[in-house]
Amino acid sequence: MGRSVTNINLPRYKKVNIGDIIIGITIFLISLTCLLPFVHVVAKSLSADAYVIANKVFLWPKELTFDAYAKIFADQSILQSFYVTVIITVLFTILGMIITVCAAYPLSRKQLKGRVALTFLFMFTMYFTGGIIPEYLLINQLGLLDTIWSLVLPGAFSAFNLLILKTSITSTVPVSLEESARMDGAGHFRILWHIVLPITKPILATLSLFYAVGRWNMYQDALFYITYNTELRPLQLKLYYLVVQATESFQLELTQVSTSNPEVLKASIVVFATLPILCIYPFVQKYFVKGVMIGSIKE
Amino acid sequence: MKVKPEVNSKNDSALILVESNRKKGIMHYMRRDWQLYCLLLIPLSFTLVFKYAPLSGLLIAFQDYNIIKGFWASEWVGFEVFRELFSKPAFAQALRNTLLLNILDLLFSFTAPIMLALLLNEIKGNVFKRVNQTLLYLPHFLSWVIIGALAYQLLGLGSGMLNNLIEQMGGTRIPFLQEDNHWLFSYILIGVWQSMGWGTIIYLAAISAVNPELYEAATVDGAGRWRKMWHITLPCIRPTIVTLLILNLGHIMGGSFERVYALQNMATTEYTTIIPILVYRWGLESGDYSSATALGLFQAVIGLILVVLADRMAKRLGEDGIL
């Protein structure tokens, strides 16, 4: 009995030699560099001030305390920036998806007159744009500076996402299905709503995530457009001012490390800002991989 | 681009019209596909307003633009702004830095995923492989601000973890981010760290498409792991490597504002001034809109030329283009 079990199991395990072990360890060490920074920051954020000031916290918290987090959740401006980010991310994603679908479906129809020219018109924006200043002046002229719309509208259309959706509509929606729908007298709106959208649901989910994560992480436009109305600063920009810029001045005053050490607070803000991404990451990762694969296949 | 008339032969009702299609005016197509054109109105208006309208703003690169006077009242100066721009030392520095950072990125961030993919491919345990991949992809999902913050927490001079560790082991603190040359090194390393895992996806897909019989034959011939990697895997994924390399070459005049801005600090100004940073500084911080626009336009035009050249090159080599 035992023999036969081993016999069945054996072919499943390939021989492991010294080379495999070296490669395994190398990969594992590289992977650790992706994990340890977070472990360190979490440890720091949960430690007592004194240990952090003394530079004694590495990968495990010393004197566990949640003080820093209590301070963050008591800080209106940080919570405010979190809300702002959630709101613009939701608006941006919904708008982006509507625009992308409205562009991708017609452009995937072979019969559409002017399809090539229109596709070029959209794709050209991937390779040549007005750039920082003309875009800033436009937002200024439209009166959108210091409003959340400056963070929602300009980027809501992505030619890259359009390309992905167009490609996948062409490749996944069977022509026969569409033909029969048309025989039954269905117009484009009905075909889009009842056939194309349900079939491309997985890719729509992927693109929504592209939009959402992209918006969540971006801070460049907020830096440009949100200058006076600091209440509208999204989380990433807030984080930049609190942590990255503060680090700078902090480093310059290296010698006078005082009791009011902001290091623990900084660490906890980093954790606070990273946590939403870390929480959804394991679930969305596979959609992203799929998106990359479709993006790399040309029509 | 193909410009032959598109004929929908599958549509029964249109079949009769095919003969006279050439003579149909635009109204015919409008009437037939009005729903499609309606849908297109939304993305079209967005693109025209937010992508094409700014292109007209590029004209201020040929003006002595004054934001109070506005576009119409500002004086036209021809190429004067560009002449001034090219003679500024800051321009030369920004150009050098942009090229320097991108070339170093190409050397390290481009090659790292290839090597990592080759190694990942050798891993036999599926669970172990998946766990590692999940960890390796993670940095791609973080914003540059978070990466910058993490970098300062780990590599900072006064309290960074790595420096604490070095000190505890009896070494002296290293200014990873607070000295120019160290900064350059850290910048590139952080870039490798951020993009390495994610970059393997395409290569792993290419590797998985390699015919397994090639490996079996090589094994029979007594080839070891490294020989198989060198003589089978690498040649088989070469088209992917070449395509991506050319694509990257096309972006050598680009530059991530967010990446540099999140990692720069006052102590390191030598390499941090890349073109987008200078555009921001001149335009939005100092209000010199004309020079900043001219600089941006310079970068965009060279960038476009490079992308088109890269595309031509890829197609000449028989690879898929990017345009």
From TrEMBL, chain A:
Major location (coarse): membrane
Q: Which InterPro entries match?
A: MetI-like, MetI-like_sf
Q: Where in the cell is it found?
A: Cell membrane
Cellular component, GO, one term: plasma membrane
Lipoprotein found in the keyword field: no
Which segments cross the bilayer?
Answer: 21-43, 82-105, 117-139, 151-170, 191-213, 264-284
Biological process per Gene Ontology, one example term: transmembrane transport
**How the protein sits in the membrane?**
Multi-pass membrane protein
Domain ABC transmembrane type-1 stretches: 82-282
* Top-level taxon in the UniProt lineage: Bacteria
What are the UniProt keywords, alphabetically? Answer: Cell membrane, Membrane, Transmembrane, Transmembrane helix, Transport
Family affiliation: Belongs to the binding-protein-dependent transport system permease family.
Name the PANTHER family for this protein.
ABC TRANSPORTER PERMEASE PROTEIN MG189-RELATED-RELATED, POLYGALACTURONAN_RHAMNOGALACTURONAN TRANSPORT SYSTEM PERMEASE PROTEIN YTCP
Q: What is this protein called?
A: Carbohydrate ABC transporter permease
* Gene source species: Gracilibacillus oryzae
